[in-house]
Amino acid sequence: MLTEVKNQLKVTLLSIKYALIREMLNKTTFISNIVFMILNNATFIIQWIIIYSLKDSISGYTLKEIMLLWGLAAGTFGFSRFFFDRAFNLDSLITDGKLDSYLVQPKNVLLSCITSDVKASALGDMIYAYIMLILYGITFKNFLLFTFYTISGGLILTCISVILCSLSFWFTKADVVAEAGNSLVTNFATYPDGIFKGVAKMMLYTIIPVGMTIYIPLKTIISFSLSKFLLIVFVTILFISLAFYIFERGLKRYSSSNLMVARI
Bridge-partner residues for 58, per DSSP? Predict the structure, then answer.
């Protein structure tokens, strides 16, 4: 069992490596995508700086905490898009019957699909995330927690997309639901949870689990809580398990397009 896991991990890392090499063929484009993504994110922080010049606190958040919030949001998004970019258009592979080339490979079909492409600009998001952490105030503990939550949040984002895209095995036009779901999680992640009240706030901790990817991690970095840390670990494992389960169930309904496609 341990050998199988080791081999699967090795093949997955190789898949990401070769996808990155393809992206780096044009080094100018590769580097410019990263730089412009950092600059794009920075423009939003400038807006918050202007707002905080008028007020010291918004919904209990200081400017430094907003920077940390944006760092976590950028980091989780960047991690998921860089390592598992194909998870966000998995529905097109399903509806177009293009999973054939992944089915014949000697590794997990889902991991094979979602690691077959990378998003170069997502590296800019991850670099920006740690710039925000430095501005917030980096310590060894903060660095470890921030890195862990970037990974856990990125995995949850990926799993949400896999779950929503896997609906394409059962329903047509499920891509609309997947796109809307991914957009909701990403958009809400950049605002402090204090501005949301009642049902809207409850949804951010359940149906739209931004609370598990951003808000609770943010609070445990500011003031560590073991119970909240363990909750994030549990939720991450739960989403990973659900993603694999739903995809595998849907895969039994998959219909090939009989296209001869080779992966290089």
Answer: 61
Q: What pLDDT is recorded for position 20? A: 78
- Token pair listed for 195: 């501005």
Question: Which residues does residue 61 pair with via DSSP β-bridges, in sequence order?
Answer: 58
- Given a cut of 70, the residues of the chain with pLDDT beneath it are 1-8, 106, 255-264
- Give me the amino acid identity at 94: I
Q: What's the chain's average pLDDT?
A: 85
Q: Which positions ≥6 away from 74 have C-beta within 8 Å? A: 41, 125, 126, 128, 129, 132
Take residue 245 and report the two structure tokens written for it. 């389960």
Q: For the whole prediction, is pTM greater than 0.85?
A: yes
| Identity of the amino acid at 72 | L
Q: What pLDDT, on a 0 to 100 scale, did the predictor assign at position 4?
A: 60
Torsion angle of C-alpha atoms 90, 94, 97, 103, degrees rounded to 10: 80
Give me the residue spans of the domains in the chain. 2-251
Q: What residues have CB less than 8 Å from 142, skipping those under 6 apart?
A: 133, 136, 221
For the chain, percent of residues with pLDDT exceeding 90? 36
pLDDT reported for residue 264: 46
List Cβ<8 Å contacts ≥24 apart for 248-254.
Answer: 248/110, 249/169, 250/94, 250/166, 250/167, 250/168, 250/169, 250/170, 251/99, 251/109, 251/169, 253/169, 253/170, 254/94, 254/97, 254/99, 254/169
For residues 85 and 67, give the distance between their C-alpha atoms in angstroms, rounded to a whole number: 25
**What CA–CA distance (Å, rounded) separates 13 from 20?**
10
